[in-house]
Amino acid sequence: MLGLGLFDNVLKSCFHLRSEIDANSDAYLSDKLPSCAFCHVCVENGFSILWEDENYIAFKDHRPASKHHYLCLLDSVKSLQQSDDPLVRDMRALGDQLLDEKGVPPPMRRMGFHIPPFNSVDHLHLHVHGLPYTSFFQAARYPIVSGEGSNSKGYSWFVEVGQAIDILERGRSVNVMPS
C-alpha cells in the first residue's frame, strides 16, 4: 500500500458517520462519537454547505484566509494510495467549480493540503482559496514551495493539490521534506 507518510494522519476520515447517523437521534449527540469537527458537517452544526453528494462535501471556512475560502472533504477515505489519484483530482475539480461560480480566474486560485503535524483538524480536507489572501500572515499559512530536480514540492508544511497528485502518481509519499 502506498501511503502518504506523515500525511497519513490527516487521511483518517470519519466523515462517513455523518451520513449514517440521524441528526435527531440520541446517538448523534452522544459523547461516544469522535470529537472531529468535520465528522458532523451539517447546517444544524453551523456549517455553510456549498456542495454535497455521496462522496464529497464542500463548505465555507469559518475563519477565511482569503476572499473565497472553502474546504472540500472526502466521504470515507482512510488513506490515499497511488490508485486514489482520481479522488484528489475530483476534489480539485470541485474546488474549481466552486471558484468558477464566484468568477475567480485560474491565476487567482490556490488549492492544497496541510501536512501533519501542521494541520489543525485530523480529517482529510482540501483548502480552496480564491485570492487575494486577507493578510500576509494568512498567506504565510499556505506556502507553495516548488521542488528541484525530481521533486514536485520543496520543504513545506503545505502541498499544492497538483503537487500532491504528481507525488501520488509517482508512488511517493507526501511529507514536509521535498518529495
TrEMBL record:
SUPFAM superfamilies: HIT-like
Span of the signal peptide: none
Keywords: Hydrolase, Nucleotide-binding
Keyword Hydrolase among UniProt keywords: yes
Gene3D superfamilies: HIT-like
GO MF terms, alphabetically ordered: hydrolase activity; nucleotide binding
Coiled-coil residues: none
Keyword hit for Glycosyltransferase: no
Designated name of the protein: HIT domain-containing protein
Organism encoding this protein: Amanita thiersii Skay4041
Lineage, highest ranks first: Eukaryota, Fungi, Dikarya, Basidiomycota, Agaricomycotina
